[in-house]
Amino acid sequence: MKNVFISFIKILPSIILSLLLSITVWVIAVTEKDPTEERRFPNTINIEVVGLSDDLVMTNSLPEQIYLKLRAPSSVWDKIVNDRVQATAVIDVTGLREGEHQVPIQIKLPVDPISIISYSPETIEVDLEKYETREFEVKVTEMGEIPTAFKGETPVVSPKTVRVSGAVSILDQIDYVRVILNHSNATETISKDLPVGAISLDGKVINSGLTFDPPQVRVTQEINLRGGYRVVVVKVVTKGSVPDGYQVAKISVDPSVVTIYSSDRALLESLPSYVETDPILLSEYTGDASLKIGLNLPEGISLVGDQSVKVDIQIPPIVSTKTFSNVPVYVIGLDTDQRAQISPETVEIYLSGPQPILNNVKADELYAVIDLQEYSAGHYQLTPRIDLASWEGVSVQSINPATIDVTITGGKPATPTPAPAITETVQP
């Protein structure tokens, strides 16, 4: 037994050497296949504060960026890049109380194997302050002008108070909490939710470090008409009728309601709920027009504000249709040695357009044309063209029949492929 042990002792160095050589060969093989690389971490590094007591708040800013350098196999780097692996920078303030503290940053990575070479910053100065919640009454700051004829009652806030939370040093700066109510040109009661804000002792808005509960409050302000004033509707008065062939498409007035005033309450209340404009003579207008018109007010009644209203009118022509029968069909473009026979020799056309213009179209001024300039001898069915250039806005709705049978004789024989038909010209 002793001899066996002595023999083992003699060969032990060789065994160890062989093992070391095997490990070295394995490491070299693995390294060559998946070499280790040093790089800067390319993805997002999230910053997480842990261990903060409920009665404390961190008042300093966290680092905007953390620079992290790692050593890892190439395959791990591929995973980091392809999977967009994120790192976490942990700031642990467990057990810390009010004051300034230098706290180390801990880096956590969800991949292995990996080594952290360096990162910056390695520590952060943490300022901890006492955290409190205080209650403040909400004040309303009113902005803008209410029209002269109206008055605004005192705004009502619901709820009347809000809870404001933050560092004691910031809470101590608060002079009051407010909402801003803009009641410019308001003529009826306002009720809306408005965001709450804090104003410092030096009159500035505190933009950060505070939370409000609730963040918005409901503000209601009654807007009422003052005595001696009345709001009435504007009624547009027209006289006469539009020219023949035209129609009224729209008459609108701006403003549609106005405020009137009188020191005579009885007179004011005796008026109807509308006032009339000065009359508009419709026969003087075609197309679109925008007019400044005065109001017809009784004696003792005055208008608050602009002494006229704007009236927009639209008087377009009536779109009508008209049928013309036995309109002759003419051929043009024939060579001197060609002849053309057409059937039928007249067509019926249906026109549409503004009635005043359509009324001016005379039957003896209409004709249909077939241009045969590009056609050789043969048999065709072609669409005639109607020339309506003299009547703006008039267009062809249809032609009956839609095609004319044309036979051309003389000249060159017909080609195997017939030329395309002439399409009708439709005026816009």
Could you characterize the architecture of this molecule?
With 428 residues, the chain is mostly beta strands. It is built from five helices and 35 strands. The strands form eight sheets. Strands 2, 3, 5, 6, 8, 11, 12, 14, 15 and 16 form a ten-stranded mixed sheet that branches. Strand 14 and strand 15 form a beta hairpin.
Instruction: Return the average pLDDT rounded to an integer.
Output: 86
Biggest sheet layout: 10 strands, mixed
Helical fraction: 10-25%
The DSSP helix count reads 5
Strand count: 35
Low-confidence stretches: 414-428
Beta-strand share of residues: over 45%
Determine the oligomeric state from the structure: single chain
Termini distance? 120 Å
Query: Which class of secondary structure composition applies to the elements?
Result: mainly beta
Coarse morphology: flat
Alpha-carbon Rg, integer: 46 Å
List the helices and strands and how they pair.
Blueprint: H1 2-33, E1 36-40, E2 45-50, E3 56-58, E4 67-73, H2 74-82, E5 87-92, E6 99-108, E7 115-120, E8 123-143, E9 150-152, E10 156-158, E11 161-167, H3 168-171, E12 174-182, E13 190-195, E14 197-200, E15 205-206, E16 210-213, E17 216-221, E18 223-225, E19 229-235, E20 238-239, E21 250-254, E22 257-261, H4 265-270, E23 274-277, E24 280-281, E25 287-296, E26 302-303, E27 308-315, E28 319-332, E29 339-343, E30 346-354, H5 355-358, E31 368-371, E32 378-382, E33 385-386, E34 395-400, E35 404-409
Parallel strand pairs: 2-5, 8-12, 19-23, 20-24, 28-31
Antiparallel strand pairs: 1-4, 3-8, 4-7, 5-6, 6-8, 8-11, 9-18, 10-17, 11-16, 12-14, 13-17, 14-15, 19-22, 21-27, 22-26, 23-25, 25-27, 28-30, 29-35, 30-34, 31-33, 32-35
